[in-house]
Design brief:
The complex is a heterodimer.
Chain A: E1 5-7, E2 10-14, E3 19-24, E4 31-37, E5 44-49, E6 55-58, E7 61-65, E8 71-76, E9 85-93, E10 96-99, E11 103-108
Chain B: E1 5-7, E2 10-13, E3 19-24, E4 31-38, E5 42-50, E6 53-57, E7 64-68, E8 74-78, E9 87-94, E10 105-106, E11 110-114
Parallel strand pairs in B: 2-11
Antiparallel strand pairs in B: 1-3, 3-8, 4-5, 4-9, 5-6, 7-8, 9-10, 9-11
Classes of the chains: A mainly beta, B mainly beta.
Chain lengths: 109, 115
């Protein structure tokens, strides 16, 4: 069974602060995805990283895939209240997509 | 185009009953996956259907079953409901099954409460 550990589980910060969310596994994934989920809705895909060492930027969000394709991080610069939500990482291995436990982020104005 | 739709959005059942949830994928998507989301276990994969055939199955008891129709719509059924089955059930669709099947699009989920 492939497991993805996300940390921290909860994060409460002030608007303007920076933060990093980590997603770690002992398994190798062919790709890793990051989702954001808001209350009452399903997860929405933010990014997919495929190559070891890959870095992708989406406005204030920076995603990195580890060199060994076992871990990933999401860094948010100057967080805003609109960034509040549940962030989920998911690793693809073969036909299976395994989700991490999620990081619940709250950004206070 | 319309997104993934799930019905009903909310459901309350009692222990021992059975329930059927429905999912309509995005037009043109032939793969439908089901997930269970709970605060304790997170998002867990139930099964994936493609062309009316179950292609993958997660680690859930046989009380959880599903099917897919020729128009790609899917249903999942849970029999003999237990308190622990209370969860948000999410459906996701994509063009085809498998790791290279393209981006998954999730529906809003069905919130099931078992009393």
């Amino acid at each position: 069974t492939q497991l993805l550990e996300q940390s921290p589980q909860f994060l409460s910060i002030q608007e303007g602060e920076n933060l990093t969310v980590y997603c770690n596994s002992s398994s190798v994934f062919s790709s890793l995805q990051w989702y954001r989920q808001e209350p009452g809705e399903g997860p929405v895909l933010l990014v997919t990283v495929v190559t070891g060492g890959e870095v992708k930027k989406l406005k204030r969000l920076t995603f990195q895939f580890g060199d060994a394709r076992k871990d990933s991080s999401l860094h948010i610069t100057a967080a805003q209240p609109g960034d509040t939500g549940l962030y989920l990482c998911a690793g693809q291995a073969g036909n299976m997509l395994t989700f991490g436990g999620g990081t619940r982020l709250m950004v206070k104005p | 185009k319309a997104g993934v739709t799930q019905t009903p959005r909310y459901l309350i059942k009692t222990r021992g009953q059975q329930v059927t949830l429905s999912c309509s994928p995005i037009s043109g998507h032939r793969s439908v996956s089901w997930y269970q989301q709970t605060p304790g276990q997170g998002l867990q994969f139930l099964f994936e259907y493609f062309s009316e055939t179950q292609r993958n199955k997660g680690n859930f008891p046989g009380r959880f079953s599903g099917r897919q129709f020729s128009n790609s719509r899917s249903e999942m059924n849970v029999s003999t409901l237990e308190l622990g089955d209370s969860a948000l059930y999410l459906c996701a669709s994509r063009r085809v099954a498998g790791g290279s099947g393209g981006e998954q699009f999730f529906g809003p989920g069905t919130r099931l409460t078992v009393l």
